Amino acid sequence: MKVSRHDIWHDEIRLNLVRIFYPCLMIFGTIGNILCLKILLRKRFRRQSTCQYLCILAVIDILFIYTRSTRYLYRYIFNVDLRNTSLWICRSFIFFSSTLSHLASWILVIVSFDRYLIIKSIFRYRNAGWRVLKSTCFLIFILCFLNSHYFYILGKDKKFEFIMKNLFFVCL
Hints:
The protein is mainly α and about 170 residues long. The chain has a single domain, classed as Up-down Bundle (Rhopdopsin 7-helix transmembrane proteins). The protein is about 80% helix and about 0% strand. It is built from 7 helices and no strands. It has helices spanning about 5-40, 45, 50-80, 85-120, 130-145, 150-155, 160-170.
């Protein structure tokens, strides 16, 4: 396969953009989410369920940013994809990355329902720390369960592959 000068130039630009983008994302994303936490954890906001959910979302966002950015930075600094270092790392990385992204989306859904139920006076109090804790723990449990399939379906286990090849040849 012939590699053109355009492909090399394109890869070089992409490499330089990644080297700039992901560190900036980590820096500004962390600062922005920490500022959100600082504001939302003030005494007057701390008791509101919406602010509690948004604090959880800020922590999830920080974890997600570092999970994703670490992979790309590692790949472009060391020329090795972190997921290729071991089967366990590959499966764990994709499990945590997917779970964190799903958590962020579903926390926003819960915030919307929580606001609706407060406006409709179904929930009497805005101060609902236990409700937030229970619903968040339940959500984490459900998403971990639903994403647990990543530990079984991703990557190739050399022992399993060897056994399957030998089983195939025995059947012939």
